[in-house]
Design goal:
- This protein is an alpha+beta fold.
- It has two helices and six strands; from the N terminus they run E-E-H-E-E-E-H-E.
- A hairpin with a 2-residue loop joins strand 4 and strand 5.
- It is globular.
Length: 76
C-alpha cells in the first residue's frame, strides 16, 4: 500500500482508505471517490497538484489531500 501522491503517471490504483476531514470526505464521496474506487494518475509532476481521473472525469487534487489517500496498484 502507498499514498496516492507517490503514484506514477498513467497507472491505475484502487482506493483503500481516505483519511481527510469530514467535509472534504463528503465532497470526495459526492464526486464519486470512495473506498474501492479506481483512480488513474494523469499527471504527478512532483510539485503542485496531481491530475487524476476517476468515474470518467478529470480532477486536480492538491498534494496534501493526495497524501491522505491510501491506494494499492489495481489489477490489470
Amino acid at each position: 500500500m502507498m499514498r496516492l501522491k507517490e503514484g506514477k503517471n498513467n497507472h491505475v490504483y484502487e482506493v483503500i482508505d481516505i483519511q481527510v476531514g469530514l467535509n472534504l470526505e463528503r465532497r470526495l464521496e459526492a464526486l464519486g471517490l470512495t473506498t474501492g474506487s479506481k483512480i488513474m494518475i494523469l499527471n504527478n509532476d512532483k510539485k503542485g497538484a496531481l491530475t487524476v481521473k476517476f468515474r470518467g472525469t478529470r480532477f486536480a487534487m492538491g498534494k496534501r489531500i493526495a497524501d491522505h489517500i491510501t491506494v494499492k496498484e489495481a489489477a490489470a
